[in-house]
Design goal:
Length: 178
């Protein structure tokens, strides 16, 4: 039995202030599809739509560099091509791209979203933890712990989808349930 990640990591979602909203419109936003990684060294909004997929947002608050990944499956099994569709590959790719953009590993903090259980038949407590969303969340928490990246927010394992807007310049996030 796996512990529910939402019990171990408190959920704290913050939204951008109205002043930041105008700035973000000028700098544009990037919609992150499943299986993608995006890093920005200038302030930008990254938008993710999540169900059982997981979005990991990582930010260097000192250098104001942030990025995110959106993955579908927990771990690459070594067959086929290693792709950011898999959490283990996606998070490592995100960390590499953040480093290349100038982020400092020791300053990074993470936020984790998604990993929902959207089907009634899977919502029994034992089945939820063994479902795809739960396994995706467990992968994120495990990789981030191994890499010693603190998780400052986890809004995971809900019964609904999420629309997440992550601000790369401030680290702020806004979550809307769908």
């Amino acid at each position: 039995m796996r512990p529910d990640a939402s019990e171990r990591y408190p959920a704290v979602a913050t939204g951008p202030s109205p002043a930041n909203a105008a700035e973000n419109q000028q700098n544009g936003s990037h919609f992150l599809h499943a299986g993608q990684v995006h890093v920005a060294s200038k302030p930008q909004s990254i938008v993710l739509i999540l169900g059982s997929c997981v979005g990991v947002c990582i930010w260097d608050p000192v250098n104001a560099i942030g990025g995110a990944t959106h993955y579908l499956l927990p771990a690459w099994d070594g067959r086929g091509t290693a792709s950011p569709r898999y959490g283990t590959v996606a998070i490592e790719t995100l960390l590499q791209k953040l480093s290349e953009a100038g982020a400092k590993r020791e300053q990074l903090v993470a936020k984790v979203f998604g990993g929902g259980c959207l089907f009634d038949s899977m919502r029994a407590s034992e089945r939820r933890k063994e479902g795809l969303g739960g396994r995706n969340v467990e992968t994120a928490m495990s990789v981030l712990a191994r890499e010693r990246i603190p998780v400052v927010c986890a809004e995971v394992g809900k019964d609904r989808g999420q629309r997440v807007v992550f601000q790369t310049g401030t680290g702020e996030s806004l979550v809307k349930y769908l």
